[in-house]
Write a structure and sequence with these properties.
It comes from Niveispirillum cyanobacteriorum. With 125 residues, the chain is α/β, with parallel strands linked by helices. Helix content is 22%, strand content 38%.
């Protein structure tokens, strides 16, 4: 079971506004905040996401093939999350739409280039 995922950032204040908007739509908020990072989620709830400056002091970089997926409650929320990401300066990696028979998703990158996804299962796996 995943407890949380950490993504790197080179500008915490800028990234925080992006994730505050995503978290608000998902019905959650900040659960931990430090000078070098912020975590969003619900304590004792599902997996959270954190945005942190790298511990080693080097620049944050994007992991090729790494993606964090946010589970939406329905297709409309997938669209809202995608629209929020775009309005906050994110970049499109694939607009909302069906991906296969029972999977509906949108793909985007945050302000540091981390790949994200908003999805909902629309039928049995």
């Amino acid at each position: 079971m995943i407890g949380y995922v950490t993504l790197g950032t080179n500008d915490l204040a800028r990234g925080a506004a992006f994730y505050d908007a995503i978290a608000k739509e998902l019905g959650t908020g900040r659960m931990m905040e430090f000078p070098t990072g912020i975590a969003w989620g619900n304590p004792n709830g599902g997996a959270g996401v954190a945005l942190m400056k790298p511990f080693d002091g080097n620049a944050a970089s994007v992991g090729n093939g790494v993606m964090v997926a946010f589970e939406a409650k329905d297709k409309d929320q997938v669209h809202r999350l995608y629209d929020i990401a775009m309005s906050q300066g994110g970049t499109c990696e694939g607009p909302p739409g069906p991906r296969g028979d029972n999977f509906y998703a949108a793909y985007f990158r945050d302000l540091d280039g981390n790949k994200l996804n908003a999805f909902v299962m629309t039928g049995p796996i």
